[in-house]
Design brief:
The complex is a heterodimer of chains A (832) and B (624). The radius of gyration of chain A is 41 Å and the shape is elongated. Chain A is an alpha/beta fold. Chain A is built from 23 helices and 24 strands. Chain B has 624 residues and is of the alpha/beta class. Chain B contains 24 helices and eleven strands. The chains are: A alpha/beta (832), B alpha/beta (624). Chains A and B meet through loops of A and helix 15 and helix 17 of B.
Chain lengths: 832, 624
C-alpha cells in the first residue's frame, strides 16, 4: 500500500517536472501561446516544490481519497505535457489551433492553481490528525519501555523523530549550559590545538589538563567546548560538569545521564550503582561522539567514578594535581610575555596595549611579578585599574614583599591558590611553607631543601623525598631534570634543582606571615633582596627570636652592617647574597642549635667570606653548603663540627680546596657522610686527606674540569657507597685502589671525555649495582674481570661499549640491564 | 677487536679496467702518434687533434737524457724551479724529486715559446699528454705543469709507454692530495726494462745503456751508428741483471732498509700488459712489487732470452696493443683460483691478466691484497669520521648558541668563557673538550696515512675544520689564559695545540689552490661573524700584558712595540673586515685594552691612527 503511494507520488512529481521543462521549451518555440505558457510555467513552478516535499517526507500513509486526488492531478499534468508538446508544434499562422490550445492551457493552469486551495487545507488537517495519533502512540511506547526496562530495544530514543525532539527540548530546558568564556581570552588557540591533538586519537578516552590554580585550565576547557570545530563534531553532545573539591558524585552522574542518555533515569542506590548503570547504558547505546568536561577535579577517587568508556565518548578533566597517567596529561603552560601583557592591559586599561598615561616601566614590573599566571594578571590588573602611579609603586613594593595589594588580590588570587595548600597534609603543608626561604626566580638545589626537611623537620629521607614529589605532582614546585639525568641521591632521585612559581612563593610567605608578632614566627624570612637587615627585625632585636628557620637575602655585608640579634631556637639558616665580599653575621654565635647552614652567592664572581670565627661555635651543624665562593680555610674552624654529615661546595674555586685540604693535617670530620664538590675550577687533584674520612658514604666530585688525578688512597674510603665523577673531562684513569671499595654501589663516570680505561681489577667491586659511563668515548674496552660484577644490574653507556656489556650480560651477568643512552642536544643549559 | 674492521673489501676491478683501456682505442691512437714523431726525427713535439681531444706527443728519447752524473738514481730537486708551485715542492727535509733528464728536456720545451703558446691555446675539452720512454716522463711533468694551471674548462690526462719512474713520494703525496693520481696512466709491457730502470743506481746501468740506447733508436726507426749484435746481448744481460738485483731487494724487504732504496716511486695508475690481457693497479707499493714480480718468468723461458725480451719489449708497444686487442676479442680467461670473495677473485684475475699467475703463496697476491685492504680501511675510517663529524656538529651548534647568548649579554663569548664561573661555561668546556678529542684524532689519523690521500683537500673537511678552529680556538685561548699557565704566551712555541696549526695549514694550502689562477678573491662587504684569524685573542692577551708593563714602566720599548703592532694588526683586520664586531662589545676585554691604550697614547697619535678613527665614528655600533 505504502509502496504504491510512494510510486504515485514520485510519478506525479516527475511528470510535473517534465511538464515544466516542456513548457519552458514551448515558450521558446511557440509564438502564439507564449503568454499562456508563461502563466502555466509560473503555476507549475509553484506546485513542483510542494509536490517534491510531499514525496521526500512521505513516510505516512495516504488515504484513498487523497490518493485519488493526487492521481487526478497526475493525470491532468500528463495531459498537460501532451498539450504543450502539441502546442509547440503548431505553426505560427494556424490561428485556430493556437486559440484552441491556448484555451486548454488556461484550463490546465486553472486546475493546477485551484488544486492547492481547494483540497490542500483538508490535506493539512488530515496530516495533523495523523501526527497527533502517532505521537500519542510514541509516548505510550516510551512509557511501556521504561516500565518494563526492555533493555533489548536500544532504539528507544529514535522511535519517532518528532517525539525525540520534544523530549530533547524538555530536557534541555533544565541543562546548565556550558559556561561562557571569560571576557578576554588570550593565547588559547595553541592550547586548544595541543589539547585536541592529545584527545583526538581513537584510543584516547580522557585527557587531564593540569596546571596550578589560576592558570586558565577552566578557561581552556570552556574554549575547547565552544571551539567551532569541536561544536561541529559533537553538536549538542558536549557536557560541562564542575566537580570541585567535595562533589556529590551521585548527582553528578545523574546529570550526566540526563544530558547523555536523555531517557528516563532510574533511581540509583549509591555512587557505585550509578557508575555501573551509566556505563551499562553507554555500552548499549548507539555510539555517538560525546564530549564531557569535568572541571576542577581534586581527588583521584572522584575521578574514577566519573570516567566512562564508550566509543566516541571522551572526557576532559581539569585539575591541579596529577590524577591520571602521564601520557593522558596535558600540562598547561603559563602565558607568554606578549599574551600576558595584553591580558593585563585588558583588565587594567580595558584595551590591548598599555595606556599612554601610565609608565611603561611600572606596568612591566607588575607583569613581571605575575609570572604569566592569568588569574594573577587579571586580579592584580583589575586592582590597579584607574589607580595613580603612587598606588602602582606601592603595589610593586608589596608584591615583591609577597604582601597582598588589595582585598581583591587577597580574596581573588591568594585564596584561590590557597585551596591547593589547604588540602595538603600537615607535614607536607609545613614543607610547602619552607619554600619561601629560597630566592625567587632561581633554580635552587633540591639537596638543600631535603636537608632542611630531614634535619629540621626530622623527617626521614624517604618521607622528605615523598613530600617533594607530592608538591611536584601538585604543581606547587617544579623539579628540573638535570640535563644528563644522573642518578641523584640514594633515594634514586634524578633531580638536582627545582623552581617555584613566584605567586606560589608569595603565597607561602604570606601564610608564614600570619603568625604575628615577628619574633614569634617559626620562619623568619626576607622576601626579597635588600641592602640591609629589615628594620622591623631590628626593632624586635631586643628579645630573642623564636624562629626555627631564618633566611636572609642581602647584598654585600660588612661586619658593621649586622646588628645583634638572638636566635636561640634557630636550626636552619639560609644566607643568600649577591656580592664579592661577605661577612658572616655575628649572630651566628647565638644559633647554638643550628643544623643546616646554606650560604649561596648569586653574584657573577666568586665571593670571599669573612667573619669566619663564628663558624667554630656551630657544634650541632649537620649540613653545610657553600655556593660560588672562594672557599675559606674551613679547617681552622671545623674542630667543633663533630656532627657534620654533609659538606657541599659548588661553583667554588678549587685551588683553595686543594690548599686547605693539603695544609691541614687534622681536617677531620668524623661523621661526614656526604661530600660534594661540584663545578669547581682549578681543582687539579683530589686532596689525600679526603681519603682519611672513612665515614664517607657518598663522594661527588663532578664538573671539575681541571681534575686530572684522583688520590691513590681512594680505596681507604671503606664505607663509600656512591662515587660520582661525571663531567671531569681531564680525568684519564681511575686509581687502582678503587677496586677495593667493597661497598660501592653506584659509580658514575659519564662525560669523562679522556678516561682511557677502567682498572683491570674492576670486577672486584662486588657490590656495584649501577654504572653510568655515558660518553666516555676513549674507553674502548671493558676489562675481562667485569664478568665478576655479580651485583651489577644496570649499566648506562654508549652504543659501542654497549655491545661489550651485552656480551658480558649474555655470558655471566644475566640480570644486567644495559641502557644505551642516546645523545640529547638541547639548549636548556644556557638558562642555568 | 672492533667488529667494523673485519669487513673485507668487496671488489677489485683492475682487470676490467685494463681491458677497457686497452680496447678503447686511445692507446693505439697515442702510440701511432709516437711512431710518427719518431720517424720525423724530432726535437719538437707533435700536436694531434681528434674529436675534441688534443694529443700532445713528446718525442721518445735522447741519449743524453739517460745520463746523470750528479745524483745516484738520476733524481733532481725541484725546489728552486719556477715551473712548479710551492705546494708540490715539499719542504727542506723532504724535498720533491723528479727525473732529471726528463725535467731538463721539459724545460727546453717550455723555453720554446711555441710549445707554451700552443698548449695554452688549446680549446679542446680533453688534452692528453703522450710520451714513450723518457718522453713519457716528460709527458708526466708536462701534465703536472698543466694541472697546476687549474684551468677550469679543460681536462688533462697523461699516457706513457714504458716510461721510467718520474718522481718521488713527495710528488705522489702532493698529487694524492689533489686527487690527480688518476690522471696518469702508465702502460708497461710485462718485461719492459725501462719502467724499472731507475730503481737501480745509475752507475750500474750506465754502461749497458750506452750500447742499448742506439739499438732502441734504430728499432724506432731513427738513424744511428750500427752496433754489433754480440755486444747488445751482453749489455742486455748486464742491465737486466743489475736492475733485477735492486727490484728484488725492494720487493722482498719492507720498509726497514728504505735508505738504500731509489727515491723514485710509481705515481698514478699502472697498466701492466701481457701478450693476451692487461690490468690496472693504483696502489704505489703494490705496483712497485709488481714491477719486480711481473719480470719473473712464469713460462720457463731461460734468463738470457728474458733479458733480450726485456730490451726488445721496450720498443714493441705497437705489437703488444694489437695482440691484446685480438686476444680480448677472441677469448676470455678465467682465474684459476677458488675463493668465496669476489675481491680475491678480482685480484687473481688481475694477476692472470698480466701473466704473473695467482698461486696461493704468491707475493704479488699478498701485495695486492694488502693494498686493497688498506684502501678499504681508509674508506671505512672516513665513513666513521663522517658520522662522528655530524654528531659533533651539534656540539658546534650549541656553542654557536652560547656565543649568541653571550653577545646578547653584551660580552663576547671569549670573555664570558674566560671567567669560567657559570654552569654554562662548564658545559661549554665539555663541548670544547669533546671537539678537541675529535679533531686531535683526525689530525693524528691523517698523519698516519690511514685516511684517503685527498682527505685534507676535501672541501667538506677543510670547511668543517676551519669553522671549528675559528669558533673554538678562542675558547682554547681563553682556557689557556684562565689557568695559571697564562703567563706564558699562547703564541710561543709548543703552546698552541697542534691541531689548530695543522688545520690552519690545510686551509691555507687549499686557499692557495682555490685562488690558483689570477682570480683574486673579492673582499668582504660585511664584518665576519667570527674573527678570521683564530689567534686574535692571544694577540690581544699579549698586548694586554704589554700594556700593563707600559703602565708599570717596564720594558718600555719592547712593550710599546707589541702594542703598536697589535694596533696595526687590528687596523688591517678592520680594513679587510675580517674581524668580528663582537670584539667591540662593551664588556669585551679588547675595549678595556683599547680604553687604556688610547689614554696612554699621545694626542698626536689620535690624528694618525686609523683604528682610533674607526672607533671614534661608532657607526659600526649599530651593526654589532
Amino acid at each position: 500500500m505504502k509502496m504504491v503511494d510512494l510510486v504515485t507520488q514520485s510519478i506525479v512529481g516527475s511528470v510535473a517536472n517534465e511538464l515544466l521543462s516542456l513548457v519552458r521549451d514551448a515558450i521558446k518555440k511557440s509564438y502564439n501561446c507564449k503568454n499562456y505558457c508563461k502563466r502555466l510555467e509560473k503555476a507549475l513552478e509553484e506546485i513542483i516544490p510542494l509536490l517534491e516535499e510531499v514525496i521526500t517526507t512521505g513516510s505516512e500513509e495516504i488515504s484513498q481519497l487523497r490518493q485519488k486526488q493526487l492521481g487526478d492531478l497526475h493525470k491532468k499534468l500528463k495531459d498537460g505535457t501532451e498539450l504543450v508538446n502539441n502546442c509547440s508544434k503548431v505553426k505560427r499562422y494556424n490561428l485556430y489551433k493556437s486559440y484552441k490550445f491556448a484555451n486548454k492551457i488556461l484550463a490546465l493552469e486553472k486546475y493546477i492553481i485551484n488544486f492547492h486551495p481547494k483540497q490542500g487545507w483538508l490535506h493539512t488537517l488530515c496530516d495533523m490528525q495523523h501526527l497527533s495519533v502517532s505521537m500519542k502512540e510514541g509516548f505510550e511506547k516510551i512509557q511501556v519501555e521504561i516500565a518494563t526496562r526492555e533493555l533489548q530495544q536500544p532504539q528507544l530514543m529514535i522511535i519517532d523523530s518528532m517525539s525525540q525532539l520534544q523530549i530533547d527540548e524538555e530536557i534541555r530546558s533544565h541543562i546548565p549550559q556550558i559556561p561562557e568564556l571569560p571576557k578576554f581570552p588570550v593565547g588559547l588557540q595553541i592550547s586548544i590545538d595541543e589539547l585536541w591533538k592529545r584527545l583526538s586519537p581513537k584510543d584516547v578516552s580522557h585527557v587531564a589538563v593540569k596546571g596550578m590554580g589560576g592558570s586558565g585550565k577552566t578557561t581552556l576547557a570552556i574554549a575547547l567546548c565552544t571551539d567551532p570545530k569541536i561544536k561541529d563534531l559533537y553538536k549538542d553532545r558536549i557536557v560541562f560538569e564542575t566537580v570541585s573539591q567535595s562533589p556529590n558524585l551521585k548527582v553528578t552522574i545523574e546529570r550526566l545521564w540526563d544530558k547523555i542518555v536523555r531517557g528516563h533515569r532510574p533511581d540509583f542506590h549509591n555512587v557505585e550503582d550509578a557508575h555501573m548503570q551509566f556505563q551499562q547504558r553507554l555500552n548499549q547505546m548507539k555510539s555517538r561522539p560525546t564530549l564531557v568536561v569535568l572541571d576542577d577535579v581534586w581527588k583521584k577517587h572522584h575521578l574514577e567514578k566519573l570516567l566512562f568508556k564508550a566509543e566516541g565518548y571522551k572526557t576532559v578533566i581539569t585539575t591541579r594535581d596529577s590524577l591520571v597517567e602521564a601520557n593522558c596529561q596535558y600540562d598547561l603552560q603559563l602565558l607568554r610575555d606578549a599574551d600576558a601583557l595584553s591580558l593585563f592591559c585588558f583588565w587594567t586599561f580595558g584595551q590591548h596595549t598599555v595606556s599612554e598615561t601610565v609608565d611603561q616601566n611600572l606596568v612591566s614590573q607588575v607583569i613581571e611579578e605575575c609570572k604569566g599566571l592569568p588569574l594573577a594578571l587579571k586580579v592584580i590588573g583589575s586592582s590597579l585599574c584607574d589607580k595613580p602611579p603612587a598606588v602602582w609603586r606601592d603595589a610593586i613594593n608589596r608584591l615583591s614583599q609577597a604582601e597582598p595589594i588589595s582585598d581583591y588580590h587577597k580574596d581573588g588570587l591568594l585564596s584561590c591558590l590557597k585551596t591547593s595548600i589547604d588540602i595538603l597534609e600537615r607535614e607536607v603543608h609545613e614543607c610547602f611553607l619552607d619554600l619561601g626561604i629560597f630566592p625567587e626566580d632561581r633554580k635552587n638545589s633540591v639537596a638543600a631543601l631535603l636537608d632542611l626537611w630531614v634535619y629540621v623537620h626530622e623527617l626521614d629521607w624517604e618521607a622528605a623525598y615523598r613530600n617533594l614529589t607530592e608538591l611536584n605532582s601538585r604543581n606547587l614546585l617544579s623539579l628540573v631534570n638535570s640535563p644528563m639525568d644522573h642518578f641523584g641521591n640514594m633515594c634514586g632521585s634524578s633531580f638536582e634543582l627545582f623552581i617555584q612559581h613566584d605567586v606560589l612563593r608569595d603565597l607561602a610567605l604570606n601564610l608564614t606571615r600570619n603568625e604575628e608578632p615577628i619574633n614569634m614566627r617559626r620562619r623568619l624570612i626576607m622576601p626579597r633582596r635588600e641592602n640591609f637587615v629589615p628594620r622591623i627585625w631590628k626593632r624586635y632585636a631586643d628579645s630573642p627570636f623564636n624562629a626555627e628557620i631564618v633566611s636572609l637575602h642581602t647584598g654585600m655585608m660588612n661586619k658593621e652592617d649586622w646588628c645583634h640579634m638572638n636566635f636561640p631556637r634557630t636550626e636552619a639558616l639560609v644566607l643568600n647574597f649577591s656580592a664579592s665580599e661577605y661577612c658572616l653575621p655575628p649572630f651566628l654565635q647565638t644559633m647554638h642549635k643550628l643544623k643546616v647552614l646554606v650560604i649561596v652567592n648569586y653574584n657573577s664572581k666568586r665571593a670571599t667570606l669573612e667573619g669566619l670565627s663564628v663558624l667554630s661555635s656551630l657544634s650541632q651543624l649537620k649540613s653545610l653548603r657553600l655556593e660560588r665562593m672562594i672557599v675559606p680555610p674551613l679547617h681552622n674552624y671545623c674542630q667543633s663540627w663533630e656532627k657534620l654529615e654533609k659538606l657541599s661546595l659548588s661553583l667554588c674555586d678549587g685551588s683553595e680546596i686543594m690548599k686547605w685540604m693539603q695544609t691541614s693535617l687534622c681536617f677531620n670530620l668524623p661523621n661526614l657522610v656526604e661530600l660534594t664538590i661540584d663545578h669547581c675550577s682549578n681543582l687539579e687533584e683530589l686532596p689525600a686527606c679526603i681519603c682519611n674520612m672513612t665515614s664517607l658514604q657518598k663522594l661527588s666530585v663532578t664538573n671539575c674540569h681541571d681534575l686530572y688525578k684522583l688520590s691513590d688512597d681512594l680505596g681507604k674510603l671503606s664505607s663509600l657507597q656512591m662515587l660520582r665523577l661525571y663531567a671531569c673531562p681531564c680525568l684519564e684513569e681511575l686509581p687502582y685502589s678503587i677496586c677495593k671499595l667493597k661497598h660501592l654501589k653506584f659509580l658514575d663516570i659519564s662525560l669523562c671525555e679522556y678516561m682511557q680505561q677502567l682498572p683491570d681489577e674492576f670486577g672486584q667491586l662486588s657490590s656495584l649495582k649501577v654504572l653510568d659511563m655515558r660518553e666516555c668515548s676513549h674507553v674502548k674496552k671493558i676489562p675481562k674481570s667485569a664478568n665478576g660484577l655479580k651485583s651489577l644490574v644496570r649499566v648506562i653507556c654508549d652504543e659501542k661499549i654497549g655491545r661489550q656489556w651485552t656480551a658480558i650480560k649474555a655470558s655471566s651477568i644475566p640480570r644486567l640491564h644495559v641502557e644505551v643512552a642516546e645523545e640529547h642536544f638541547h639548549l636548556d643549559w644556557l638558562e642555568d | 677487536m672492533d667488529v667494523d674492521l673485519l669487513n673485507p673489501p668487496k671488489f677489485s676491478v683492475g682487470q676490467e679496467l685494463g681491458s677497457l683501456i686497452a680496447t678503447c682505442g686511445i692507446l693505439t691512437k697515442a702510440w701511432e702518434g709516437i711512431c710518427s714523431i719518431s720517424n720525423n726525427k724530432g726535437d719538437s713535439f707533435l700536436l694531434v687533434k681528434d674529436e675534441d681531444v688534443a694529443y700532445v706527443i713528446f718525442p721518445s728519447f735522447h741519449n743524453e737524457d739517460f745520463i746523470v752524473t750528479d745524483s745516484k738514481y738520476g733524481e733532481c730537486n725541484i725546489q728552486n724551479d719556477k715551473i712548479f708551485s710551492a705546494g708540490l715542492k715539499g719542504d727542506d727535509d723532504n724535498p720533491a724529486l723528479v727525473h732529471k733528464g726528463a725535467l731538463n728536456r721539459f724545460r727546453q720545451f717550455l723555453e720554446n715559446q711555441d710549445f707554451k703558446a700552443k698548449v695554452e691555446g688549446l680549446k679542446e675539452q680533453a688534452i692528453i699528454f703522450v710520451g714513450h720512454s723518457i718522453g713519457g716522463a716528460v709527458a708526466a711533468l708536462a701534465t703536472l705543469w698543466f694541472l697546476e694551471k687549474r684551468l677550469r674548462n679543460s681536462n688533462s690526462f697523461c699516457i706513457t709507454f714504458g716510461a721510467p719512474l718520474f718522481g718521488n713520494a713527495i710528488i705522489r703525496e702532493a698529487l694524492g692530495c689533489e686527487d690527480w693520481l688518476g690522471r696518469f696512466c702508465h702502460v708497461v709491457c710485462k718485461y719492459d726494462i725501462v719502467p724499472r730502470m731507475n730503481l737501480a743506481p745509475y752507475e750500474s746501468t750506465a754502461k749497458p745503456l750506452d750500447a742499448i740506447v742506439p739499438h732502441w733508436w734504430s728499432k724506432m726507426g731513427i738513424d744511428c751508428a750500427a752496433v754489433s749484435h754480440f755486444s747488445i746481448s751482453e749489455a742486455c744481460m748486464a742491465l737486466v741483471n743489475s736492475v733485477l738485483k735492486c727490484t728484488s731487494t725492494i720487493a722482498n724487504n719492507y720498509p726497514g732498509e728504505s735508505g738504500l732504496r731509489s727515491p723514485f716511486v710509481p705515481i698514478g695508475t699502472y697498466m701492466f700488459c701481457s701478450t693476451h690481457d692487461a690490468a690496472c693497479f693504483e696502489d704505489s707499493e703494490a705496483v712497485l712489487k709488481l714491477l719486480h714480480f711481473s719480470m719473473q718468468s712464469q713460462d720457463g723461458i731461460p734468463f738470457d732470452q728474458i733479458a733480450g725480451i726485456c730490451i726488445s719489449e721496450h720498443t714493441d708497444y705497437g705489437h703488444m696493443l694489437e695482440d691484446i686487442d685480438g686476444a680480448l676479442l677472441n677469448a676470455r680467461q678465467f682465474a684459476n683460483f677458488v675463493s668465496n670473495s669476489s675481491f680475491e677473485i678480482g685480484i687473481a684475475l688481475e694477476l692472470e691478466a698480466i701473466g704473473v699467475g695467482a698461486q696461493q703463496d704468491n707475493h704479488a697476491l699478498f701485495a695486492l691484497r694488502k693494498a686493497g685492504e688498506e684502501k678499504n680501511e681508509k674508506d671505512r675510517n672516513i665513513e666513521k669520521l663522517n658520522v662522528e663529524l655530524s654528531t659533533n656538529q651539534s656540539s658546534m651548534a650549541e656553542l654557536e648558541w652560547y656565543k649568541m647568548r653571550c653577545k646578547n649579554n653584551n660580552i663576547g663569548y671569549y670573555d664570558a668563557f674566560k671567567q669560567l664561573v657559570e654552569k654554562k661555561d662548564f658545559k661549554v668546556n665539555l663541548h670544547r673538550k669533546k671537539l678537541e678529542s675529535f679533531w686531535d684524532e683526525i689530525v693524528d689519523k691523517e698523519k698516519k696515512h690511514v685516511l684517503p690521500s685527498d682527505f685534507r683537500t676535501r672541501n667538506k673537511w677543510i670547511n668543517a675544520g676551519t669553522a671549528y678552529r675559528r669558533l673554538v680556538e678562542p675558547l682554547d685561548i681563553a682556557y689557556h689564559y684562565h689557568t695559571d699557565k697564562g703567563h706564558k704566551s699562547y703564541l710561543s712555541d709548543g703552546v698552541r695545540p697542534h691541531r689548530h696549526i695543522v688545520l690552519e695549514k690545510w686551509m691555507k694550502e687549499k686557499e692557495q689552490t682555490r685562488t690558483g689562477g689570477n682570480r683574486g678573491r673579492r673582499g668582504r662587504t660585511n664584518f665576519a661573524s667570527l674573527t678570521q684569524d683564530s689567534c686574535f685573542w692571544a694577540h690581544l692577551e699579549e698586548a694586554c700584558k704589554a700594556l700593563v708593563n707600559l703602565q708599570q714602566e717596564q720594558d718600555i720599548n719592547a712593550s710599546l712595540q707589541v702594542c703598536v703592532e697589535f694596533e696595526k694588526y687590528v687596523g688591517s683586520m678592520i680594513t679587510d673586515k675580517s674581524i668580528s664586531l663582537e670584539v667591540f662589545l662593551d664588556q669585551s676585554s679588547f675595549m678595556i685594552w683599547w680604553q687604556q691604550y688610547s689614554d696612554f697614547q699621545s694626542p698626536q697619535w689620535k690624528s694618525s691612527s686609523s683604528v682610533f678613527d674607526f672607533m671614534a665614528k661608532e657607526g659600526w655600533k649599530k651593526k654589532v
